[in-house]
Specification:
By secondary structure, the chain is of the alpha+beta class. It has 2 domains: about 5-75 and about 160-229, no CATH class; about 75-160, no CATH class. About 45% of the residues lie in helices and about 15% in strands. It has 6 helices and 6 strands; from the N terminus they run H-H-H-E-E-E-H-E-E-E-H-H. It has helices at about 5-20, 25-50, 60-75, 110-120, 190-205, 210-229, and strands at about 75-80, 90-100, 105-110, 130-135, 140-145, 155-160. The chain has a 6-stranded mixed sheet with strand order 1-6-2-3-4-5, with no helix packed on it. A hairpin with a 5-residue loop joins strand 2 (about 90-100) and strand 3 (about 105-110). The model has no long low-confidence stretch (mean pLDDT about 85).
């Protein structure tokens, strides 16, 4: 699932040019588009946390949790990692570290303080069957029997950051270049939110308060509609 970057750009241009409110260059659009995409992406996790806190078993909130989990699932990855090295460069949130895939047994994480205790306690030491891992600024370290690092067969289940949006064009013609463009990676249902939020920020860029208000008002209506559904 994705949202076509040219569709969004053309909708934004149509609205900004409707009353001669100014022109958003491709460079400006790409900068704003990436900011908006990341804001929407980060909002998924905030909203999911909020809806999960709602007590009871109301169908409305259950549906919202499912919708948000579906949107986040687009970004979930399972990648091979090596103990003692950095985690994937596109990592946004780490889910779990697993081994023995395809069965994929989850490896327990311990803190640095716990690790010091484990090394002194024979009963708490990890094994190759039940390893543990610690995480620091350098990445992760997985330990098995005799506290020896396990360096193969390790996988990270994680949520990656969205791909960088790019509306590319042919320098000679100025026309849209689909081959060198990158679409929005958020859920396809976000197309309207993308347009409205880009318009709001573009209003600030173009110093057009009316355009900012148009984008903000449309976004507010959309949020209220989602909450009422």
């Amino acid at each position: 699932m994705s949202v076509n970057v040219n569709t969004v750009y053309q909708r934004v241009l149509a609205i900004t040019n409707k009353e001669q409110r100014g022109y958003i260059t491709p460079q400006e659009f790409n900068t704003i588009a990436n900011q908006v995409q990341l804001d929407l992406f980060e909002q998924y996790f905030y909203d999911l946390n909020q809806f999960r806190r709602v007590p009871g078993n109301d169908t409305q909130y259950s549906d919202m949790v499912s919708i948000l989990e579906e949107k986040i699932s687009i970004f979930e990855k399972l990648a091979t990692v090596t103990s003692g090295t950095t985690l994937p460069a596109d990592l946004y949130r780490l889910g779990s570290i697993v081994n023995n895939c395809p069965a994929c047994r989850e490896i327990e994480q311990v803190g640095q303080k716990e690790w010091l205790y484990i090394q002194r306690s024979p009963l708490a030491k990890p094994t190759n069957e039940f390893p543990i891992y610690i995480r620091d600024n350098a990445g992760i370290k997985v330990y098995g029997t005799n506290n020896v690092q396990i360096t193969s067969g390790i996988y990270a289940n994680y949520v990656k950051v969205p791909a960088t949006v790019n509306w590319a064009y042919n320098v000679g013609t100025g026309l849209y270049d689909a081959a060198n463009s990158t679409n929005f990676e958020v859920h396809e249902s976000e197309e309207t939110d993308l347009v409205n939020n880009i318009l709001a920020i573009a209003g600030v860029t173009l110093k057009d308060n009316n355009l900012y208000q148009v984008g903000s008002a449309e976004e507010m209506k959309n949020v209220q509609s989602e909450k009422a559904s």
